[in-house]
Amino acid sequence: MSTQATTRPGGRSARVQQSVHQAVRDLEAEVGRSALTVPLIAARAGVTPSTVYRRWGDLRELLSDVAVERLRPDGAPTDHGSLRADLEAWAAQFAEEMSSTAGRTYIRDALLGDPEQGNAIRCSDYAAEQLKALGMRAAGRGEAVPDLETLLDVVVAPLMYRILFRPSDLSTAYTDRLVAAAVGRSSLPPQA
Q1: Hey, where are the domains in the chain?
Q2: Is 58 within 8 Å of 112 (Cβ atoms)?
Q3: What is the pLDDT of residues 56-107, one digit of tens each?
Q4: Are 99 and 93 in contact (CB under 8 A)?
Q5: What class, spelled out in words, does domain 72-183 have in CATH?
């Protein structure tokens, strides 16, 4: 993937990215995913196909970039009063959103169009930022908080595996069990 597509550009570059991303979303809704082509997207966005190829390389990389933006959380996780409650709500919402048909498509797009794994890292960072926010909030309440890697390994990793390969058991009971296992490891001092 072009390094330009992974940065948050300003000015004309930001406008091009925004218009191309919007064109992808609009055309996908209008004509379907299988009909998407770089020339069609470029025409809708008001840029030349060479602009798209120069910035994203090919259609797969463009779809990957669009998917990563769609996977970005809208805001900070909701406060439910305790680390366990916050994590249970976050994990249930994460499982629901990512296991939807659209969520699984975005995950696959993000990974398929990114041979260098930069988008995978960005997606992982989104989850890590959300978990850090929950941990800092819990630490502020004086709660013991598992370290970030434990939360990623015990909650997020099994969820991603299930979402991609075994989506049949993504119930709230399942996500609650993952959270209980992670919180059970909270004998560590609170995160700073």
Answers
A1: 3-57, 72-183
A2: no
A3: 999 999 999 999 988 889 888 999 999 999 999 999 999 999 999 889 988 9
A4: no
A5: mainly alpha
